[in-house]
Design goal:
This protein is an alpha/beta fold. The chain is built from 16 helices and 7 strands.
């Protein structure tokens, strides 16, 4: 017997497009509902944490009240997860970290509870937490990615690259371009030693392009490696070519296996001119160049950039983790952090 439904008529013209539209609208509605549920849950957790703080401060309740509260809430709401003593302590810490209810509702309530637990555990002070919270919302980071960005000290590296963008790009593009780059770039995921040559690093970056794009940051799209430029019959090859979706421009990345030298900028500036003339669309913004070198003298780089009329930046790259071995071995892995944050899974303590 056929499993096909009977009695169905042939769909009329335009039905397929309408069905796609309906599916999109339903999916969007589902996402909005999930976001609304998460926002309400985070706000509820904040309110519980605020009440715990207030009663402990005003009425002198000790820490054991959390154990009693956990027991009573679990008994009253057996179908709900998240009322373990551990999670109630997170709620108290959450309310203490964010005393402004309006800020909680408008900003951190956009993040899943597990993300907020990571911010509390891994970061000191409200300003640092606000920065990572904003980036997690902007780029839709998973909890794993948030942990990785914190461990790689993204905040300390963002916008620190030596550039001449103030002199060569209009605002606000110059500010956005500077914030889109970082210094140094951590390429320790390549598994190479510090002695690796330029072409070896370049090949490994292409092989691990997904991780490299993650390290570059949001907005970068990979165009190609060793991209051919024919200028007056002579052939030249760009190490790596990207397109930045927010900046609306091409980004040329050149690798140098040694220390930065001012003459490196001449070659990179030439590549930018060629890309602007041969590759760039009239509606694209000026091409940006990034020189990645193993080391640099920051003052020398800043001097060299001043009289260059092309938008260029100079950053270092690190092939191995620069932390001391004894400290590196003491850091928990992402898997360990995930297990710790989700350790009481049946209670949904830090569930996404």
């Amino acid at each position: 017997m056929s499993d096909k439904p009977t009695g169905l008529i042939e769909p009329p013209a335009g039905y397929a497009d309408w069905l796609v539209e309906l599916k999109t609208r339903i999916h969007t509605a589902q996402q909005r509902a999930a976001v609304a549920v998460n926002r309400d849950l985070v706000r509820l957790y904040w309110q519980i944490g605020r009440d715990i703080l207030a009663r402990q401060a005003e009425q002198g309740w000790g820490a054991k009240v959390i154990d009693r509260l956990s027991q009573d809430l679990r008994a009253a709401f057996p179908e709900m997860r998240g009322f373990s003593p551990r999670n109630l302590k997170y709620m108290r810490a959450f309310a203490e970290a964010w005393p402004d209810e309006e800020f909680v509702q408008q900003v951190v309530a956009q993040l899943p509870w597990g993300h907020n637990a990571v911010l509390l555990d891994r970061l000191p002070g409200p300003n640092t937490r606000k920065w990572y919270a904003a980036k997690a919302i902007e780029h839709n980071w998973s909890r794993n990615i948030l942990v990785m960005q914190i461990e790689s000290r993204l905040l300390e590296r963002s916008g620190k690259v030596a550039t001449n963008f103030d002199l060569t790009l209009p605002r606000p593009q110059s500010d956005l371009a500077r914030e889109s780059l970082k210094d140094p770039y951590k390429l320790d995921f390549l598994g190479l030693t510090n002695e690796a040559q330029e072409r070896v690093v370049e090949g490994a970056l292409v092989k691990h392009i997904t991780q490299f794009l993650l390290e570059l940051g949001a907005g970068f799209a990979f165009v190609g490696r060793q991209v051919l430029l024919n200028v007056g019959g002579d052939e030249f090859f760009i190490d790596l070519l990207f397109y930045h979706l927010k900046l609306r421009c091409y980004v040329v990345i050149e690798l140098k296996g040694g220390k930065f030298k001012p003459e490196h900028l001449g070659q990179l500036s030439f590549y930018l001119t060629a890309v602007d003339e041969q590759v760039k669309h009239p509606q694209d913004n000026l091409t940006i160049g990034l020189l990645l070198c193993k080391s640099k003298n920051k003052v020398v780089a800043e001097y060299a950039l001043r009289n260059v009329n092309k938008p260029l930046g100079v950053s270092e790259y690190q092939l191995v983790e620069s932390l001391p071995a004894e400290l590196e071995s003491s850091l928990p892995s992402i898997a360990q952090i995930e297990r710790e944050l989700g350790g009481d899974e049946e209670e949904g303590e830090t569930e996404e």
